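To: structure desk
From: M.T.
Subject: fold request, one chain
Message: Could you run this one when you get a chance? Sequence is below, nothing fancy, just the single chain.
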Amino acid sequence: MPDTNVEPMFEVAHLAAVELYSPKRQASVDFFANLMGMYIVREDSDATYLRGYEDPYAYSLKVTDRTEPGPGVISFRAQSAAALDRRAQVLTAAGLGDGWVDKDFGHGRAFQFHTPDGHKMKLLWDVDYAAVTD
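Reply: Done. Structure tokens follow.
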């Protein structure tokens, strides 16, 4: 049971990015780019990264090839590097930690974890900001 005498630590700043699994990646990308108006910022052999007009980071949506549609990894940005480390310790102690990744497109070191019902999550601090073009 949580200690109610301890001030809550609001260490997650905001949602950073969402990954969607898609058996029809190109159709999904076309939907988000052409119908929703998002920008394609990068394409790899198995994923496409997109962002909205005012998204500050390199991407906010990743569409990844999979045989079944569904949610992929949901990424959150911590309030600070120290907050990231503290949350990683708490998540590990709770048995929900899956380990660190050093660098992925759009961000630096991140801690991977899962929710009690199995959803894949990632918490990060260092981010790449969107390139501003005229």
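Reply (cont.): Strands lie at 12-22, 39-43, 47-51, 61-65, 70-78, 97-101, 110-114, 120-124. Let me know if you need anything else for the meeting.
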